[in-house]
Amino acid sequence: MRGGGAVAATVVFLQFLIWALTLPSCFGGNVTYDHRGLVIGGKRRVLVSGSIHYMRSTPQMWPDLIQKSKDGGLDVIQTFVFWNLHEPVRGQAEMRRFTAKIVNMMKQENLYASQGGPIILSQIENEYGNVDSAYGESAKTYITWAAAMATALDTGVPWVMCQQSDAPNPIINTCNGFYCDQFTPNSDNKPKMWTENWSGWFSSFGDPVPYRPAEDIAFSTARFYQLGGMFLNYYMYHGGTNFGRTSGGPFITTSYDYDAPIDEYGLLRQPKWGHLKDVHKAIKLCEGALVATDSETTSLGSNLEATVYKTESGLCAAFLANVDSQSEATLNFDGNSYHLPAWSVSILPDCKTVVLNTAKINSMATISEFVHQPSIDDSTAADAFLSGWSWIHEPIGISSDSAFTKLGLLEQINATADQSDYLWYSLSIETEGDEPFMQDGSQTVLHVDSLGHALYVFLNEELAGSAKGRNSEPKVSMDVPISLIHGRNKIDLLSLTVGLQNYGAYFDKKGAGVTGPVQLKGLRNGSTVDLSSQQWTYQIGLRGEELALSSGTSSLWVSQPTFPKDQPLVWYKTTFDAPTGSGPVALDFTGMGKGQAWINGQSIGRYWPKYTAPDSGCTNSCNYRGSFSPSKCMKNCGQSTQKFYHVPRSWLQASENVLVLFEEMGGDPEQISLATRETGSICSQILETHPMEVDMWTTDEETRTQAGPTLSLNCPFPNQVISEIKFASFGTPHGRCGSFSHGRCSSEKALPIVQKVIVLTDSVDSI
């Protein structure tokens, strides 16, 4: 479609990482490197990689995720090997033993490229250079040891260290960040590699959800390859889900969507996936020149650059960049005029024709939404899919024979060894009856200081107060008004972790739990009594955890007419049938407070829909121009950070699926509903200044010069068809996908023409 047009349709301590090619490979030789890149099978390669962490998706999802990655132009998949997953209990000989074990497992399966397998790269440590100054000289000793330990394992592929400027030879030091075009390795013999191009950012309970515009990540990618980069990895390409208790932070959400090109549920995030696919294709069109020679960069004006890769044999590729965050520009290059929007890169595989500009998106956009499912009796009530609830009250305070007593307050992580999110602190105190507050009926105040992350205070088995931290400040401090009774009073503090600290210097020493002081204020003559050094009784975990209630098989479940809603510390159970179809499934936890959930005995993670983000800081749209940071582009202000929770299809059976919840703070489980993740609308918008589709690139120069932009729409699933065209405009339309409107100039024929195409083809393509 020439001119402007738009169409919308309804439809761990150690970090050990490995990179594996997505294409079949049988090299029979070592992977090496030089200053221009990795050398695989004797050939330099320009490589595009993406992070997919196997533990954040299910094995049944992996083939589809890998196929979509290949379709998106990735050559390589990167994954973490999670030490905490594979060795949750500490062993003897530590880092060396674990690393050697993983390497030997890979060797036994002939997975390294040197054995004819797909693994081309390994990483030891992760961003240690960001914190090593805190460790002084011992940091240098450690890095030298780690490098020697890794290379001695003789994998036949290179090792890298990210954010480690002093990585010793032959370790390749690499860059992580939102932009790495200005990065330079610490040796002229090492290639320029970007191991984490952050596709978005993680979300934290109680905060808005960050997202990164497609134009900006495309800009950062093109700039990296423009200025000599040869290997780039997106962190994340598919983020997935922090099942169970695996989320860290603390306070990182169960969703690890990361605004990645493939979303948490395995669906394509458009236009980000499609736009990056086009960027990758454009880069690959330049590969012959990129691997053959070094570049030459020339300034063409303020914030304007041209980079040329030209060989003696006649290969030529060019990148034109406008790094100004405000102003578009027209520049002259090699006798031709080129228009560049602000904050954009144009790619010219023949040094003449623009095949892609990072600010001009040809890919269609999709709108995915959660569709609530009707009940098994065809009712539309949100809770009707459930067949009835049973429940068990969790005892308040100490209920286990494994409880123990200690003088003083214990730090939680060391006390529990992270066996559970929960630790009870219990203490009994006596009042004599002659205290002023006992005489006049006034309240005293219980003051509690905790390292976090959340805390419930019970007095005489009644909830007296609660508090929570957040990612930016996990600590909790409470002043709880309480009414003591004459005689024995029982104070029970339930302390919770919401994932463990996973970054920063000495992060392993960041504690949690009630470390005090714990004080009673307002006693005789207004005095304060410090209870911190008393003999406290402790219980690690819950009675329900000890009884394995999450399996749903216990005989203790009861169902009575009086259903416990909005009560703390209740276990709930129900059954439901799986929704029809094969699309992704989620639970909407509207009405619930905070807790954990299990489907057929498998944990879908922590839920916390009551923790809402602040009202301010979000915008309806985000200007991609200028440097990105997680606080620049945010959504969900004033809303629950996460209310939908992924339920993998492979965990479900056709009927009688068992859902078990542990609700901490109180909620109404009858409001929970089942939903499917569906793509209902697709849109596309192009201008006459857009370049041709990358797929239309041809070596015939005359054909290239005559080709124009193309508008394409097609359904994301094979069994879908476009059922309706809601909007079509040829002229000067406004808005974005889901909210287009006509501009001052608009052709009345656009809609019927597109509608005719849809009737004939069930798709809108090549308009």
From TrEMBL:
<dbReference type="InterPro" id="IPR000922">
    <property type="entry name" value="Lectin_gal-bd_dom"/>
</dbReference>
<dbReference type="Pfam" id="PF17834">
    <property type="entry name" value="GHD"/>
</dbReference>
<dbReference type="InterPro" id="IPR001944">
    <property type="entry name" value="Glycoside_Hdrlase_35"/>
</dbReference>
<dbReference type="GO" id="GO:0030246">
    <property type="term" value="F:carbohydrate binding"/>
</dbReference>
<dbReference type="GO" id="GO:0004565">
    <property type="term" value="F:beta-galactosidase activity"/>
</dbReference>
<keyword id="KW-0378">Hydrolase</keyword>
<dbReference type="InterPro" id="IPR008979">
    <property type="entry name" value="Galactose-bd-like_sf"/>
</dbReference>
<dbReference type="InterPro" id="IPR017853">
    <property type="entry name" value="GH"/>
</dbReference>
<protein>
    <recommendedName>
        <fullName>Beta-galactosidase</fullName>
        <ecNumber>3.2.1.23</ecNumber>
    </recommendedName>
</protein>
<dbReference type="InterPro" id="IPR019801">
    <property type="entry name" value="Glyco_hydro_35_CS"/>
</dbReference>
<comment type="similarity">
    <text>Belongs to the glycosyl hydrolase 35 family.</text>
</comment>
<dbReference type="InterPro" id="IPR048913">
    <property type="entry name" value="BetaGal_gal-bd"/>
</dbReference>
<dbReference type="GO" id="GO:0005975">
    <property type="term" value="P:carbohydrate metabolic process"/>
</dbReference>
<dbReference type="Pfam" id="PF01301">
    <property type="entry name" value="Glyco_hydro_35"/>
</dbReference>
<feature type="domain" description="SUEL-type lectin">
    <location>
        <begin position="705"/>
        <end position="756"/>
    </location>
</feature>
<dbReference type="InterPro" id="IPR031330">
    <property type="entry name" value="Gly_Hdrlase_35_cat"/>
</dbReference>
<dbReference type="InterPro" id="IPR041392">
    <property type="entry name" value="GHD"/>
</dbReference>
<keyword id="KW-0732">Signal</keyword>
<feature type="signal peptide">
    <location>
        <begin position="1"/>
        <end position="28"/>
    </location>
</feature>
<dbReference type="Pfam" id="PF21467">
    <property type="entry name" value="BetaGal_gal-bd"/>
</dbReference>
<keyword id="KW-0326">Glycosidase</keyword>
